[in-house]
Amino acid sequence: EAGVAQSPRYKIIEKRQSVAFWCNPISGHATLYWYQQILGQGPKLLIQFQNNGVVDDSQLPKDRFSAERLKGVDSTLKIQPAKLEDSAVYLCASSTDYRGELFFGEGSRLTVL
Amino acid sequence: DAKTTQPNSMESNEEEPVHLPCNHSTISGTDYIHWYRQLPSQGPEYVIHGLTSNVNNRMASLAIAEDRKSSTLILHRATLRDAAVYYCILRTYGGSQGNLIFGKGTKLSVKP
Predict the structure, then answer these.
(1) Which of A60, A108, B17, B91 has the fewest Cβ atoms within 10 angstroms?
(2) Per-residue model confidence (pLDDT) at position A87
(3) Chain B residues with at least one Cβ partner in A under 8 Å
């Protein structure tokens, strides 16, 4: 079974530029999560989708971050404009439903210069 | 949010058992105890979870204290591949939410 796919794996941008990350969850998984992991810390939830609806986006910095999950499958996380403190690994995870075990992708590492 | 306390780091020798402790004194009756681990340069992966009773699976065992205020993840024979950060997480399901709230975890080093 294919796992959670994320791209790009690495991205380097300058501050104030924009960036987008893509996630393809495991087939049939209704719940999709985006986490931000800053070096040396545990992952922090940014947003949770149930199918194509947002369940929790309380920790998403909405002035610069946006996410969508069209058709309840793939998802995109966008940052515009990026700040230095956005340098982190962005992890996508999916689960069968909101109670299921989370399966994580390998993450997208963002460096903002 | 329910919180857990774990040692920052632990060391083990290869092929010896490892006991990773976790304190969660404010656990509620509906909180499940989950363990995930994160190998270097990878996303976290599920290890095991339980509610009240001890649990075993192919990866590890989970021992839960009778008062549920602490738990221990047991790796029966550590291998070099078990070197990772181990996260103990309390997971509550409210509404449609069930996200994992990660702490800093315990970094496990395994010596050959």
Answers:
(1) B17
(2) 98
(3) 36, 41-46, 49, 85, 87, 93, 95-105
